[in-house]
Amino acid sequence: MTKDLGKLWAERMTTAERDMSFPDSEPRDAATLMLIDRSGHTPKVLLGRRHAGHKFMPGKFVFPGGRIDPLDRLMPTVSELHPDTEKKLLERVAQPAGDFARAFALAALRETAEETGLLLGVKRDRPPAVPGEIWAEFAKANVHPDLGQIHFIARAITPPRRPRRFDTRFLTADASAIAHTIEGVVGPDSELVELIWVPIEEAGHLDMPTITGIVLEELLARVEAGMAHDLPVPFYFMIEKQFFRELL
After folding, report:
1. Alpha carbons 163 and 235: distance in angstroms, whole number
2. Within a 13 Å sphere around the CA of 125, how many CA atoms are in the beta-carbon half?
């Protein structure tokens, strides 16, 4: 993986993605989860197709994810983030704190459960002590989040003057971490109308946001490099209409 991926982001952007005519805003912290299945010869990644009626990225294939909720910091887990993962999540952050780093991982797990019905973690004979209703499904299923198996793959900030801006951390976990499935979450009237498992190398051909395709390439490179926690993490951002890719 080379620094040219920063240029590729700029080159691949669609006309809509290049439209910077909107009032500028501060990006909101968000997290997304790239769930991978490495049980077969070819690693596959889980993607969901957004409802065509959504104003934001209608019909696009995306990873499940969303904004951090204040309660995410308080959710108990059976293990914490690997020290290298926590360190990288806190780099280039104005007020770094451990609970801020874990909030990204927990938000990604919670949003994945809400959008796909897949609960990742460890199933036990008692429920976790959830901090609020947004974590209720984990309590119902006796699933305790496990942060030790989370890997940090990339960070990207939406360019300025876009209708919605996010400072997104792209995380990954193995499909073997799925502890429970809630049926009926995905469907024609849901945020995600379908879920597909697709080989990482082929996923980029789907209709998806440009940065999603770029990060898929980062994910494949990470898998091929052995998925070690201490591997560098690329950070994508734009300053004065110039794209950058730096390593954390």
Report:
1. 21
2. 0
| CATH (domain of 199) | 3.90.79.10
**Residue 175 DSSP code:** G
| Angle value at C-alpha 180, between 187 and 98, nearest 5 degrees | 105
CB 153 within 8 A of CB 34: yes
99: DSSP letter:
H
Q: Under a CB-based contact definition with an 8 Å cutoff, are residues 35 and 172 in contact? A: yes
> What are the Cα distances from residue 1, in Å, to 89, 206, 222, 223?
20, 21, 9, 12
pLDDT at 4 over 80: no
pLDDT digits (tens, 9 = 90+) for 100-147: 999 999 999 999 999 999 999 999 999 999 999 999 999 999 999 999
- Report the DSSP pairing between strands 65-67 and 118-120: unpaired
Lowest average pLDDT, out of 59-63, 97-101, 153-157, 224-228, goes to 97-101
Cα separation values, 2 from 92, 172, 183, 219, Å:
21, 21, 41, 13
170: containing domain: 4-247
* Cβ neighbours, 10 Å, residue 148: 13
CA–CA distance, 236 with 233 (Å, rounded to integer): 10
Report, in angstroms and rounded to the nearest whole number, the Rg of the chain calculated over CA atoms.
Answer: 17
Question: Looking at the 3D structure of the chain, how many domains does it have?
Answer: 1
Entry pTM? 0.90
